[in-house]
Amino acid sequence: MSGFLEFWRILLARLPEFLPYLLRGAVVTVEITVATLLFACLFGLVLALLKRARVPLLGSLASVYIELVRAVPVLTTLFIIYFGLAYLGIQLPSFVAAVLGLGMLGGAYMAEIVRAGIDSVHRGQREAALSIGMTPAQAMRFVVLPQAARVVVPPTANYAIGLLKDTAIVSTVAAPELLFAAKTLVSQTILPMQIYLLTALIYLALSLPLAHLANAMELRLRRGD
Amino acid sequence: MGDFLQVFADNVHDWFPPLLRAAEVTLELAVLSIAVGLVLGLLVALLKVSRLPILRPAAVVYIEAIRGTPALTQIYLVYFGLAGIGLVMDNITAAVVALGMNTAAYMAEIYRAGIESVHKGQRDAALSIGMTPLQTMRFIVLPQAWRVVLPPAANLGVAILKDTSLASAIATPELMSRAYDLVGQTWRPMHIYLLAALIYMMMCLPLIRLVRYLERGARRGEAEAPGGRGLRRRLAEAWAAGARHGEPGAVAK
After folding, report:
1. pLDDT at position B253, please?
2. Which B residues in the span 96-155 are in contact with A, Cβ-Cβ below 8 Å?
3. Does residue A50 contact residue B153 with C-beta atoms inside 8 Å?
């Protein structure tokens, strides 16, 4: 029992020292999440359009890529990009490697999400746009994609939550994010339980509001049906 | 490019066997974690759909806490955190405990979606012929829930198989750990991590096939199922509940 009280006394006593340090790491976690989300959206859109437009070769390459990258752990793609590319002479900063490593898989997810969104728009919409003289690209840009966005938003929010948690993996390539900050603190203080608990709480504080936002958006969009 | 492939050709017979042996540990970790997740997850799900005081909120907190934090943080908590307060585990046990508890939270949500997918009339009918609530769950609800539970559960299995790679962070002797060691010995990261990726593909791609097969089967059942009209939505909910990396699935197609 006294050990239990001692545990919390230590945590409270060191909190003013631990919390700012961990929060600085959390800022990097958010930065990596946002940068990867943007990259994955763009990459995913390109993959989905390549696949859809049936561009010879590139279209099938996109399909194969989407299939294969989902069968590989994020940690492995991250190591291929960070250590593998360094071996070939391309030394990426850990932040960039983190965004690319997480975004490789993210692009494949986003491609599937965008494709489902495009499929959800009635064929007649595109045909009507073409019949009034729009080019296929214009029809996609001004008619199909804006309507697809509605279907795309909720799964994208879900992906963002998964991504936020997956950023913890980039601590293995020394990107200075939350879990890396925690590991550094642990090595200095040898208080793993206190620090990792605090870290888990900060992740919760980041992901729970996002999860509620995703739920709220999904309910709202479903009501619009 | 030629040199790159030449290095592969020269060394693959040295690299492949140790990596394959480590892949066995990966499979063991995955199977054990899934087993823990299936059992513990059902318990948590039953508590969550129950009206038991204290236990129901505890199940909700468990699910939210696990699903809101990264698996890697949980592995560190179990391995380093518990050791810090005197509970020391070897790295394989720690990996199975952490990944198993993680799987249980996602599995609980899949079970819950499955249980809720069974029409309320089924339960009412069972209770009205004198079954106890537990009998109703065991003989009426759960057998019907399987249809919705199976595809996302298999999908979760793929995610866990991949997430066993995180156990390399505590030096569990699985595939990524072994690859990391080999890179240290040979300094050929690109070759060895690509080889590791290939082995993960060999394990995951057949499983992904199985997931799609189960999913098609579940959707075919939609038309004939009792009260099955909302099945598509239920399936999507179960899928989203079990998506560890926010992967899109099921009804997205």
Report:
1. 41
2. none
3. no
Please tell me the class of the A27-223 domain. mainly alpha
Tens-digit pLDDT profile for residues B6-48? 888 888 889 999 999 999 999 999 999 999 999 999 999 999 9
Residue pair B73/A200 in contact (Cβ under 8 Å)? The answer is yes
Amino acid of residue A193: M
pLDDT in tens, A108-136: 999 999 998 998 899 999 999 999 999 99
Max distance between CA atoms of chain A, in angstroms, equals 79
Using an 8 Å CB-CB cutoff, list chain A residues near B200: 71-73, 76
What residue ranges do the domains of chain B occupy?
2-246
Query: Distance (Å, rounded) from C-alpha A170 to C-alpha B38?
Result: 29
Distance CA A53, CA A42 (A): 16
Helices (H), chain A: 2-52, 58-69, 74-79, 85-87, 94-120, 123-131, 136-138, 145-166, 178-189, 192-223
Vertex A48: Cα angle to A211 and B202 (nearest 5): 80
Structure tokens at A139: 């029809």
Q: Quick one: which of A11, A38, A40 has its CA closest to A200? A: A11
Q: Are A171 and A196 in contact (CB under 8 A)?
A: no
Alpha-carbon distance A18 to A139, whole Å? 53
Predicted TM-score (pTM) of this structure:
0.91
CB contact (8 A) between residue A199 and residue B165? no
- For B35, the token pair is 């087993």
Residue B71 region by backbone torsions, left for phi larger than 0, else alpha for psi between -120 and 50, else beta: alpha
Asked if A211's CB is within 8 angstroms of B70's CB, the reply is no
ipTM for the predicted complex comes to: 0.90
DSSP string, A137-161: HHIIIIIIHHHHHHHHHHHHHHHHH
pLDDT one-digit tens code per residue, B194-231? 999 999 999 999 999 999 888 887 777 665 555 555 67
CA distance A69 to B247: 12
Gap between the Cα atoms of A154 and A221, Å rounded: 8
> CATH for B2-246?
1.10.3720.10
Spell out which residues of chain B touch residue A74, defining contact as CB-CB under 8 Å. Answer: 162, 165, 245
User: To which residue do tokens 């012929």 refer?
Assistant: B129
